[in-house]
């Protein structure tokens, strides 16, 4: 049994925030627990952008009885008027006397001011309890609020010889059911899902989220330098989620107009011949897409990795070997490094065994 202490309540607040991943858009996920005289009197989670913050929900539940209480919050309470008024002021007004915070809010509009406001009113504030877990939980929010660029997670399922299809292009299925379920949870937890046009032409995927319970569909993003995408492609015609096609000035204006008439948003990034991926990330950030799940294929994966645009790599490996030409159908197609010391390596590696599949994830560094 857990021992009751500060960590006991903070981990509950983090658990609640964790369950809201994927539904707050560019906002963070935040949990709050209010404790008084040995009992919890309020629980709150920020559920959707534009609606109440975690502290507000928890204090509303406490219904005016929070005087003298301790509030556990997974992110520094805000100090600014955004879509909602400042939480720090609300904590002060309610007479909370101690606030335990897991991590600072890097939002330049907050960045320490929330904690400062509380301390100026004589409230005891402690920052840093379970900080590592809290930072990891909001890694997408943190990147986007500081850079206005989306956080990109690359997901790939490959054979043991690193291939994402056989030499004929067959790819159903490589990974096991357990791994494929995780992928759909990952889709729910990202605002966008990105593929290259070759993947659309080869597989005609719908790129939607399919779980045992309904999930959210990410915006479908297709990188297509010359607008080769067929108008009949599922992502153009099925209406299941918005679709953005990123192309170049080299694309045919007539095709662009047809795609726009079909309801697709077309964004031009660079003169061609290839999409300028760095400016694509900026353009997608401007559309308030704060997180992207990159599902390849190999050419786009390789180009994104080489350009340093990937924040997390999640690779599923299945115990299969399919062979093929050297480097053909590989997870990452790019010219490659000369020396092993120049390899792109992963930091903070985590390994998870899923039946007979293995998941290896980490942060790529050069
Ligand atoms: C908190 N508690 O539950 C959340 C916070 O547009 P708004 O009003 O929703 O403000 C969004 C910003 O507020 C967001 O960028 C982040 O800095 C903070 N989010 N703060 O005290 C919460 N969701
Ligand atoms: Zn707030």
From the alpha-carbon coordinates, what is the Rg to the nearest angstrom? 23 Å
Judged by helices, strands and strand pairing, the structural class is alpha/beta
Average residue pLDDT: 96
| Strands ordered across the widest β-sheet | 10-9-8-7-11-6-12-14-13
Q: Provide the low-confidence segments as ranges.
A: none
Ligands (ions, cofactors included): ligand AOF, zinc ion
The ordered H/E elements are HEEHEHEHEHHEHEHEHEHEHEHEEE
Number of helices: 12
Overview of this structure, please?
By secondary structure, the chain is an alpha/beta fold. The protein is built from 12 helices and 14 strands. It has helices spanning 6-19, 54-62, 87-93, 113-120, 131-137, 139-147, 177-188, 197-203, 234-237, 253-261, 277-286, 298-306, and strands spanning 31-36, 39-45, 70-75, 98-103, 124-127, 151-159, 192-196, 219-223, 243-247, 265-268, 291-294, 312-318, 345-354, 357-365. The strands form 2 sheets. Strands 10-9-8-7-11-6-12-14-13 form a 9-stranded mixed sheet. It has a 5-stranded mixed sheet with strand order 2-1-3-4-5, with helices on both faces. Strand 3, helix 3 (87-93) and strand 4 form a beta-alpha-beta unit. Helix 3 (87-93) runs parallel beside helix 4. Zinc ion is lined by residues 53, 55, 77-78, 87. Keywords: Hydrolase, Metal-binding, Multifunctional enzyme, NADP, Oxidoreductase, Riboflavin biosynthesis, Zinc. Converts 2,5-diamino-6-(ribosylamino)-4(3h)-pyrimidinone 5'-phosphate into 5-amino-6-(ribosylamino)-2,4(1h,3h)-pyrimidinedione 5'-phosphate. Pathway: Cofactor biosynthesis; riboflavin biosynthesis; 5-amino-6-(D-ribitylamino)uracil from GTP: step 2/4; Cofactor biosynthesis; riboflavin biosynthesis; 5-amino-6-(D-ribitylamino)uracil from GTP: step 3/4. Residues 4-126 form the CMP/dCMP-type deaminase domain. Substrate binds at residues 171, 187, 203, 207, 210, 295.
């Amino acid at each position: 049994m857990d021992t009751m202490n500060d960590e006991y309540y903070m981990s509950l607040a983090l658990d609640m925030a964790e369950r809201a991943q994927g539904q707050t858009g560019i906002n963070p996920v935040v949990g709050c627990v209010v404790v008084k005289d040995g009992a919890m009197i309020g629980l709150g989670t920020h559920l959707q952008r534009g609606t109440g913050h975690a502290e507000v929900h928890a204090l509303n539940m406490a219904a005016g009885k929070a005087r003298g209480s301790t509030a556990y919050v997974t992110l520094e309470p805000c100090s600014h008027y955004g879509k909602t008024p400042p939480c720090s002021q609300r904590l002060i007004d309610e007479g909370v006397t101690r606030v335990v915070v897991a991590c600072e809010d890097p939002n330049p509009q907050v960045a320490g001011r929330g904690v400062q406001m509380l301390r100026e009113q004589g409230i005891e504030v402690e920052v840093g309890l379970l900080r590592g877990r809290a930072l990891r939980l909001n890694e997408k929010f943190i990147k986007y609020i500081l850079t206005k660029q989306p956080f990109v997670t690359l997901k790939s399922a490959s054979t043991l010889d690193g291939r994402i299809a056989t030499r004929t292009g067959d790819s159903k299925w490589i990974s096991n059911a357990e791994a494929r379920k995780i992928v759909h949870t990952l889709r729910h937890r990202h605002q966008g899902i990105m593929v290259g046009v070759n993947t659309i032409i080869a597989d005609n995927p719908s790129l939607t989220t399919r779980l045992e319970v309904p999930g959210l569909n990410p915006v479908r993003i297709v990188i297509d330098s010359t607008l080769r995408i067929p108008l009949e492609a599922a992502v153009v015609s099925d209406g299941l989620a918005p679709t953005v096609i990123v192309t170049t000035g080299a694309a045919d204006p007539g095709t662009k107009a047809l795609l726009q008439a079909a309801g697709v948003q077309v964004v031009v990034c660079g003169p061609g011949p290839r999409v300028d991926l760095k400016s694509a990330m900026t353009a997608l950030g401007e559309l308030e897409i704060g997180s992207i799940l990159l599902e390849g294929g190999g050419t786009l994966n390789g180009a994104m990795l080489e350009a340093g645009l990937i924040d997390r790599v999640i690779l599923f490996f299945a115990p299969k070997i399919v062979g093929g030409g050297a480097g053909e159908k590989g997870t990452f197609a790019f010219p490659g490094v000369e020396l092993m010391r120049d390899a792109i390596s992963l930091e903070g590696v985590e390994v998870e065994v899923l039946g007979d599949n293995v998941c290896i994830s980490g942060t790529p560094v050069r």
